[in-house]
Design a protein that fits this description.
- The protein is built from no helices and 14 strands.
- By secondary structure, it is mainly β.
- The chain has a single domain, classed as Jelly Rolls.
């Protein structure tokens, strides 16, 4: 496949208010939009690759992060807020949601998604430190072919918040 760029990403659960350029995305995350209904911006690739990007850090009650998506019943997501780390997955509508208290003052989180064959690792780094903390390794049915991946934004409160994504880098792995 060709190199994935910002223009290759498509909305699933499009937000009411957003602006996207070839480098940046800004949006308003409305209240009570949770996975998998919340805004997801997804691309597709059948290559082995490494994806890195930065999202803003969501306020308490919200999350910004990266995800793998197959259907509303089959996905994996890892996100951050100012107070927590979120790991959420669903397989055949059996959802697992884990939040770990992990406060941060960082305004942005750098996300990493590394795909090799049918395995995908997801991790994050503080942009100033660059040391990746790998927090999820997963496989899903059908991942030996093309996979959908991208960013997600969720909000478990009634108060909307502003979020963003930038610094997208997609590097196809060499065999």
């Amino acid at each position: 496949m060709k190199k994935v760029t910002m223009k290759d990403f498509r909305w699933l659960g499009k937000p009411q208010s957003w602006e996207r350029t070839y480098k940046n995305l800004t949006l308003t995350v409305e209240g009570m939009l949770c996975l998998p209904q919340g805004p997801l911006l997804l691309a597709v690739s059948d290559d082995d690759f490494t994806l890195s990007l930065q999202t803003t850090t969501a306020p308490d009650g919200g999350f910004c992060g990266v995800c793998l998506y197959n259907t509303d019943e089959c996905y994996t997501a890892v996100g951050r807020s100012k107070t927590n780390l979120l790991l959420e997955s669903s397989s055949r509508s059996n959802r697992t949601r884990l939040t770990i208290p992990l406060p941060t003052e960082q305004e942005n989180i750098e996300w990493h998604l590394d795909r090799k064959a049918s395995e995908v690792r997801i991790g994050y780094a503080v942009p100033s430190e660059k040391r990746v903390e790998w927090v999820s390794s997963t496989t899903m049915a059908g991942m030996q072919g093309a996979i959908s991946f991208g960013v997600f934004f969720s909000n478990h409160t009634n108060t909307a918040f502003q979020a963003g994504m930038h610094s997208l880098s997609y590097i196809k792995s060499e065999v």
